[in-house]
Amino acid sequence: MKKIIRNGTIVTASETYQADLLISDGVISSIGKSIEVEGAEVVDATDRYVFPGGIDPHTHLEMPFGGTVTKDDFETGTIAAAFGGTTSIIDFCLTEKGKPLSEAIKTWHDKSKDKSVIDYSFHLMISEINDKVLDQLPDVINQEGITSFKVFMAYKNVFQADDETLYRTLLAAKEHGALVMVHAENGDVIEYLTKEALAKGQTEPIYHALTRPPEVEGEATGRAAQLTGLASSQLYVVHVSCKEAADKIAEARKKGYDIHGETCPQYLVLDQSYLEKPNFEGAKYVWSPPLREKWNQEALWNALRTGQLETIGSDQCSFDFSGQKDLGRDDFTKIPNGGPMIEDRFSILFSEGVRKGRISLNQFVDITSTKSAKLFGLFPKKGTISIGADADLVIFNPETKRKISADTHHMAVDYNAFEGMEVTGEPETVLVRGDFVIKNKQFVGTPGSGQYLKRAKYGKTTNLADKPMMIQ
Length: 472
What we know:
By secondary structure, the chain is α/β, with parallel strands linked by helices. Helices cover about 30% and strands about 25% of the residues. The protein starts with a strand and ends in a 29-residue tail after the last strand.
């Protein structure tokens, strides 16, 4: 059925205006005043913003880590994402050395099959580079539409790759049209500091932060930037948490390097003191990079405002406090790294960013949706409101006040990292390709309705006539 979104204030990364939207066959077919179509379902958006659906470029659903598996899978995680105004996610496929890349991709297709309620795509982890791996990359890009590769500079003896692997991945990405992503922390130094702390009997959650100081993030970010410049390639630094790393990105961009930075809501509103909560409560806030001293928050907001950081991902990686996080009760290194963030990314950035004057309304759209669509080969099918674009839309009430709580969130995890935080602004209705997933704050979607997205190469745009790839 055709739908008309009526009387809303449409907001894109560059424009704010009042108009109606006509949705036909899952796409936006007309934008104008007082649209009338016989038989169309009318959705009243008076006093509401109409945003392009959020794109979360950084999630970990049903991911194995530290002897356990993240609590939220592609069903619960994407339902929570939809409640939070996100209509597309890009999750990470983890690979194993010596095994075909296609095996990892199939595993993630199997995980997501018949579960996701919103559209989704994958990044691919690169843990080693050799001729066999290099020979597989063209098929990964051209057949699967996976055009971004992640290299870990941390988690020694688990995920960490060496500098040669990073550099050769950058060269391959330049050749094939992909974007390299890095988790930028110096894993070797962290390994030393961690062993030193444990030898002294320092086992509490706060030592997770103290053994991963901001200097190791800044150093790794700068090293990755220099290698990117040397390779004349392109880089995306995930989950920037501190001024040291943000400054390295800014310096590299001034040199003309093609480098982009992402931060996450947790680094904008939470700080290192949360890891000192008594009775092991600090374990709820263990993720990597760790939370930083509070003064870093304003540096990150400033980097978002000035465009040195361009996107906000959730880094959704949820583990229950009881039964998972407490695996590290006597040793902080055994606390599974990660937190539940996917549902509140959108509202926190609006409430703390737009409402408090730190960023503009149009910047909000750019940061939560448009820039990720452009960087990761989804624009203009996703990430904007224009004729021919997918009708991925969020009808948003900018005045609603609510308290974030595990009692009311939709994630499967047993706590919320932002518990008790009051935010202003809330998604009320969310559509994916013209179909309601959330309607008047009620879930009306269907697991499995989300479609896998093949993405364009780095720097390229999608064809508005393209259809999402269906996985049978």
